[in-house]
């Protein structure tokens, strides 16, 4: 799709060529629609925003008073990661499962939508939702729990959340290719809630049984938690390793899901 | 120019199998520029499979599929088509105008938004969320989405299902306007009167094959029968024995007679029963032709078995 072809189309009767600018516009329109459509859907946005903020309010701020500012700081990361997982898993997985069932995916495949615009749109939507969750938690942490953060730390946590949603998008997409329709939310909760617990997002990991502590690194959320803690200066070791593992998770889930999607539609 | 230049889409010898089930068994369909082709057939005849092949949603197991001389999976081929599918749950929270802008963005040279809306008769719905519309309104929005890219070929899969008569008439006139612009239309439908009212050419499918292809008149002429209905005391079994009567059966007070020589049979009827009343004579329509075609097919199959 190069720009040169636009001049050729005026001289031949052949198919009208799509200029690079219009193709870019199509990607943009798809991403915009995907964001608008979910931001307007309270059934999607409310649970995503309410669960992490309520938990943080309850456990991080109200009950955490006696534990001091460090607990509020630690739990800001924990509930941030917990909150970031859901737009990835649910925004991607549930919507894919429903749209495979409802025929929207078939419709889009029949239309001349540019390749990948569908997935890219959902990805950007999940990133936007993740950013909203992190910003809400940051505001609560700063105003209600008086966590002291530098602008850089807050920015890093936001970045961790916005990029950290991607492995969970890929996981949600994979589940969405296995399950069609209404069964997907239940299945995703079966992944979401135990995984959150087992990677120490509800109870700090060193309070979990030894066995669970040892297997924690198999969960992608564990690694994202470590990165979040590093963003707020609570952790320093093995950052490259955590990033590498998360990228690995994302690539593996995505490749399997994309192959399945191509085959089953 | 070469003779195939006005062909916009073509299935040749297309075969599609799902496991042991053969959905399409060597189907040939050619679609020309600016014509409205209706594809008819009972459920499971292979209509949807044929459309899916032409849209590039599935691959054939044999034969060839062409869309504007290209593989339909090539996006450049699909940039020249518009689509209205039977069951597509569009995002409920998006407004009609937003949906139109989104789908139009996929095309190189789309219609202005107002023009698409006016063609489909949804100019007053642009600000409404899609999920708040009635079924008929949603169908009209889907129709607008099918034509918003200024396509040269539009696929309409059962477009008027669930519409009331008024909405159906509106959609029909919109389809005629599209064809008048030079756009080719492929229409699958269960409603024979829809094909009768709109189509220049009709393809009848059954059991994965094309049973008949031609103009509506040619298809009708395949069944040279006329129906006679009247209130009479005559014995149906006796009338059925008359020359040139294909069948005669009683339905309460009325008798129904099929014949290929209505004039002769009528003369004899009126002579035989002077008190005969409520006489109706009707040429066999597409419905009869269609029943006849799909019935013959089952007979042939029994013979083959």
From TrEMBL, chain A:
Subcellular location: Cell inner membrane; Membrane
Membrane-spanning residues: 44-64, 76-98, 119-144, 156-179, 186-205, 239-258
Domain ABC transmembrane type-2: 39-264
Top-level taxon of origin: Bacteria
Keyword Lyase: no
Alphabetical UniProt keywords: Cell membrane, Membrane, Transmembrane, Transmembrane helix, Transport
Family (UniProt): Belongs to the ABC-2 integral membrane protein family.
Protein name (database record): Transport permease protein
Species in which this protein is naturally found: Dyella lipolytica
UniProtKB/TrEMBL annotation, chain B:
Regions crossing the membrane: none
One matching Pfam family: ABC_tran
GO MF: ATP binding
Keyword DNA repair: no
Domain of life according to the entry: Bacteria
SUPFAM superfamilies assigned: P-loop containing nucleoside triphosphate hydrolases
Protein name: ABC transporter ATP-binding protein
Organism whose genome encodes this protein: Dyella lipolytica
Lineage: Bacteria, Pseudomonadati, Pseudomonadota, Gammaproteobacteria, Lysobacterales
